[in-house]
Amino acid sequence: MEFLYTADRNRYRRMTTSELRESYLIDGMFVPGEVTLCYTDVDRAIVGSAVPLKKPLTLPVHKELAADFFAQRREIGVINIGGSGKISVDGESFDVDNRDSLYIGRGSKDVEFISNSEDNPAQFYILSYPAHTDYPTKLVKQADAKRLDLGSREESNKRVIRQSIRPGIVDTCQIVMGFTQLAPGSIWNTMPPHTHRRRSEIYMYFDLDETANVFHLMGEPDETRSLVVRNGEAVVSPSWSMHSGAGTRNYTFIWGMGGENQEFDDMDHIDMETLR
User: Fold this and answer.
1) Three-state SS across 67-115?
2) Residue 154 CB neighbours (<10 A)
3) CATH 2.60.120.10 fits 2-274, yes or no
4) String of b and e for 182-218 (b: at least 16 CB within 10 Å)?
5) Burial classification of residue 152, based on how many CB atoms lie within 10 Å of its CB (0-12 exposed, 13-18 middle, 19 or more buried)
6) How far apart (Å, rounded) are the C-alpha atoms in residues 133 and 97?
7) Who contacts 183 (Cβ-Cβ below 8 Å, separation ≥6)?
8) 3-class SS of residue 129
9) Which residues lie across from 203 on neighbouring strands?
10) Which of the four pLDDT bands, split at 50, 70 and 90, describes residue 267?
């Protein structure tokens, strides 16, 4: 398991591009035949992936968790961005197709990731936060997620948001997840930007080819920074940091949050005139 130690709100102002990437960017995910995990010091989130081929993959137990099994004191959200697959949780099998989500509750001991086809494997994106009670594991098909159509072509931000792991659909301790898909010709996400000091957020960008990038904007409104992000990479946003971005073409990203509350509209919007 890798570790990501983020900088505080003062030190990030003096960091080089390389230092910013080391402190906020998670790369190296979606390795065929492997589980990758990165432990962050932001709300103790764990970000990772599983890409099973011939054999199922299981969640490992690391010393740093001080647990008998991965989800002993954690809940997990999973979204599949690859081919069809299955996730087995304590012997119960769930069919998880592309863009489907699975919430795995605290106390789940045996978690296995399976691809239906080695030629088109599932690519499971994993996000986990500490949990303090047990909720049942639940599958959310893409069609069952709450859909929001936002933005416009004139503002280059026409997009569809699907909220899958959220109150009213799945009961969780703190994790909420979903994804945002930009329409062709649209490049901006989450603009105007915002913060929510009561919780952190992690973006994972995908649906980008090898020549495409997203310029992820972060930091405080009067001291913004940018990270060049490529397909399958994630950016951790502490509660004090805004999060927004623009791509060289349209793309999709998974967002996941954890913290004090689960209210989507509880945002501190940033006045565009204050951005520097």
Assistant:
1) CCCCCCCEEEEEEECCCCEEEEECCEEEEECCCCEEEECCCCCCEEEEE
2) 7
3) yes
4) beeebbbbbbebebbeebbbbbbbbbbeeeebbebbb
5) exposed
6) 28
7) 153, 158, 159, 160, 250
8) strand
9) 235, 255
10) confident
Per-residue pLDDT tens digits for 34-88: 999 999 999 999 999 999 999 999 999 888 899 999 999 999 999 999 999 999 9
Amino acid at 234: A
**Exposed, middle or buried: residue 14 (CB in 10 Å: 0-12, 13-18, 19+)?**
exposed
Q: Which two tokens stand for residue 32?
A: 């065929």
Alpha-helical (H) ranges within the chain are 17-24
Written as six digits, the tokens of 83 are 């081919």
Q: Is the pTM of this model over 0.90?
A: yes
| Position 169, amino acid | I
| Paired tokens of 250 | 């349209």
Judge contact between 91 and 109, C-beta under 8 A: no
Under 8 Å between Cβ of 23 and 10: no
* Three-point CA angle 51, 99, 56, nearest 5°: 25
